[in-house]
Specification:
6-stranded mixed sheet, Rossmann fold, 2 domains, single chain, 455 residues, 6-stranded parallel sheet, alpha/beta
């Protein structure tokens, strides 16, 4: 379940040290060496610090951090000391990977999911630039800033600037109390990085926390948010005297696969009984390659109308569908739904003008040809890996099968899919002409526009 405080968040603001990078080893190596060289030039013996004392200030404003490491009479040489430390840090980072495990892959996936991302740090500008360059992190972020960029800047003001530029709703991800306080001053929720340098006591005021950077993928998931939202809507709308029929549709089944699974799970969490009619398994073989025939002849629309949509009004659905594609081909699959339960019908081009009645709730997942071509390999890879787990096959074999199947499927899509989608769009159904609002219909509502795959 997505935490309610971060539901709907679309901008992610990351702290850097202790959140994206494990700067402790870098700091220890560069601070000890830098202090030694700095005080040697002054003709003095450096202060003796433990490892804990040297790293205790990580995350604090950089001037405060460095100043506390110098003796009071030597603080007038602060800029000189900072330059010495930066040279050591840069040398270290040029030869070491200091990001936490999974940071690049997690950021890549969050970006694919459509999040806008920023880095806001208490460090000084040259250090932040060195981190972004040596660790190859800059490519993931829409905005990168630190208190060294602007005179008198604070983490709170930089966060406010990031939200103003990138838009909200936003959440701050950090490991220290500085991050929490800066977020709260802007009225933003926070996700605590327990793996960093703060600890639970510093992060008591966060909305939630993660013990591994990769766990952010479980907290920040627009598809899961959408599934929870739809499940809540269905739970409120469904009548108790008949089945509730929900359609999930798009230009290609690869576009609906992920949301379908999440939605069925979300309904189960709401204690709503649900069954699934996957029309793609019952698709007819269409001899003509024309776009018109791809819609009119692909599925048994009359059967869907008579045995599902009309039948639900009698209080129960009892139907059976021959399997023509995939697992179980040649068999017949029952489709049953009782009063108070939900039947999720997943298929291409629903609702359709050929149907006499609309579904109780209809969802169309918007996607252009590029979106579909990206979704196909992802969906097939997930399917093949799932089969491999059940049969004891290897992931490498599954990925190879998925690549071969995806190439063929993309070619099939290119031959007629875009033309079919264009024809369907020209029908000017309600959810195309009014696609940014919930629209009332005679039988229910339409959730018109959903984008799952960002380009």
């Amino acid at each position: 379940m997505i935490h309610p405080d971060i539901f709907g968040v679309r901008t992610l603001i990351f702290d850097m040290d202790g959140t994206l990078i494990a700067s402790g080893d870098t700091a220890l190596a560069s601070l000890r060496g830098g202090l030694k060289r700095f005080y040697k030039e002054l003709g003095k013996k450096p202060p003796a610090y433990t490892d804990e004392q040297l790293t205790a200030g990580i995350g604090a404003p950089s001037d405060d951090f460095y100043r506390t490491l110098l003796r009071p009479e030597d603080r007038r040489h602060l800029d000189r000391f900072r330059r010495e430390i930066l040279r050591g840090e840069t040398r270290y980072m040029n030869t070491h990977r200091i990001t936490y495990r999974g940071v690049p892959s997690t950021l890549r996936e969050l970006k694919r999911r459509g999040y806008r991302m920023a880095v806001v740090s208490n460090c000084h500008t040259p250090y932040q630039q060195a981190v972004m360059e040596t660790q190859n992190l800059g490519r993931f972020f829409d905005r990168i800033s630190c208190i060294g960029d602007f005179q008198g800047a604070t983490k709170a003001t930089l966060i406010a600037d990031a939200v103003k530029e990138l838009g909200g709703p936003a959440v701050v991800i950090g490991d220290r109390k500085y991050d929490v306080d800066a977020a709260l001053s802007n009225g933003l929720p926070t996700i605590g990085a327990l793996y960093g340098y703060g600890g639970r006591e510093e992060l008591l005021e966060t909305s939630t926390w993660v013990e591994d950077f990769r766990h952010l993928l479980e907290l920040l998931d627009p598809v899961q948010e959408l599934a929870q939202r739809i499940a809540a809507e269905v739970t409120d709308l469904r009548p108790l005297d008949r089945p509730f029929v929900l359609s999930l549709s798009g230009p290609h089944p690869a576009m609906t696969r992920e949301l379908c699974g999440r939605l069925l799970s979300a309904l189960a969490e709401n204690n709503v009984p649900a069954t699934h009619l996957k029309l793609e398994q019952h698709r007819r073989k269409v001899s003509s390659g024309s776009a018109e025939r791809q819609i009119s002849d692909a599925f048994d629309w009359r059967k869907l109308d008579d045995e599902v949509l009309k039948a639900r009004l009698s209080g129960r659905i009892d139907s059976s569908w021959p399997i023509s594609h995939g697992e179980g081909k040649g068999k017949v699959r029952p489709c049953r739904s009782r009063a108070g339960s939900v039947l999720l019908v997943e298929g291409r081009y629903l609702p359709n003008r050929r149907l006499d009645e609309m579904f109780d709730l209809s969802i169309w997942i918007q996607g252009n040809s590029r979106d579909v071509e990206r979704a196909i390999p992802r969906a097939l890879k997930a399917d093949e890996r799932s089969k491999a787990k059940e049969t004891g096959g290897t992931m490498r074999e599954a990925d190879t099968k998925a690549r071969v199947a995806a190439k063929k499927e993309v070619e099939r899509w290119r031959s007629v899919g875009p033309k079919t989608a264009e024809l369907y769009a020209k029908n000017e159904l309600p959810f195309f002409s009014d696609k940014y609002r919930w629209k009332k219909t005679a039988a229910g509502k339409i959730l018109p526009y959903v984008v799952l795959f960002q380009g």
